[in-house]
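One thing: can you check what follows?
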Amino acid sequence: MSAYAETVVPLVNPESNIPLFYSLEANASVRFEDYSDFGETTKPKFGLNYKPTSWAMVRGSVNRGFSAPQLDVLYQPASFSVSSPPGVRDDVRNDHFLSAGQTADVQVLARTYSLANSALAPEDSEGVSVGVAVDIPFVRGLSSTVDYWEIEQKNLIQSQGRDASLDEQLLR
């Protein structure tokens, strides 16, 4: 189940005739999700749009986000496979064996392990964005924007790739 709500509140409009305030508006939104697999979450977003003139705008927002884990990452049965010859060469292990004095004709093929984790929580994020938009005066409908955003992610659901270091794979 999910729900989403959004509102825009005009604080200053062009009819107000306030110098350097053509318009100012606050916006807010909230997203609610209820998942049977890990529960519910509510994430907000707040922002401001400031226009000193009719053709320029400065905007900014702060938000929180999430991404639910996919069902296969939660519940897929464990699996293990090794490529069939000629297969995919495992560069990490081959380089290790060559440096240990093995001959170059030894080929270690890539191995794949897949394990699900039903205890995974959703990924979380916090974001900030700031931007400027300018309408180009000589071309109707054309505008130029510059935006900066920063997102901090937590509880990332990641896979161990086949090119990870041998030490990282042996420690697992």
Summary: The two ends are 37 Å apart (CA to CA). The longest helix spans residues 91-99. The beta strands are 2-12, 23-35, 39-53, 56-67, 79-82, 111-114, 123-135, 143-154. The mean pLDDT is 83.
